[in-house]
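Bug #77: duplicate submission created two jobs. Keeping one. Sequence:
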Amino acid sequence: MSHARSHASRRTVLALATGAALAGIAVPALAAGTTDKHSATTGHTRHTTAKPTVVLVHGAWADSSSWGDVVNRLQAQGYPVLALANPLRGLAQDSAYLESRLNGITGPVVLVGHSYGGAVITEAAAHVPNVKALVYVAGFAPAKNESIGALTAKYPGSHATPDALNVVPYDTGDTGGTKGVDIYIKPDKFRDVFAAALPQRQTNTLAAVQRPIDAGAFDETATAAAWETIPSWYLVTRDDHAIPPATQRFMAERAHAHTTEVTAPHAVMLTRPDAVTNIIRSAATATR
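Kept job's structure:
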């Protein structure tokens, strides 16, 4: 899977970014059943009561602190929670990092991905047997051999267009002097693309601290789709200007996800942490 380190021109990179919208959110999902486990020694059915670990994976233009209100709510309800720092360097690298972290967790895991983080959990969870549920918070859920750029372009409506993005070359640090390319949202476009329901002053701060994503991530294709075998939940954000709601509905339906819709922008974990917490809790209940 190529990371698309570029000597490409600004124009080429902007074309890459045209179909790009990243980040993610969650919503109250549907029913959650109880999983019974059978004891080989007694022949009786027993019920597990320990709560699963909730692992939260942010998307582009955000960081793990964006989950803060959700983390507080889940911890108050007794859930172990880990909000990971997603490297945002590309699907292969980011999913390998997530997989390595998941392998260090004992017991069942509910894996939550916002925006681009959804693509990362889709790839990583396919190789980790203790992931029992996937939650997509306005997240990408690619099929095998599908990219997030292709998914974003599938339906109109994304405001993450070239005129809203800054393209910033950076040194990768290798001996060959390879240059990478990072994508940021322009500060004056950040509120519209990412979190339109928040006050301007707050989105100004978020724009200043945003973490960029490598341009190559838009074209990298998934090598696995964990939603094919792991139950999933999806929160659709109706006012999303990053990933079109029609794209979200398409991915949720394809994955046969328990789907809930909420009127919220892309950064729903910031504007509606209650809805995000509810859908995670529904998924978590289904693992017990």
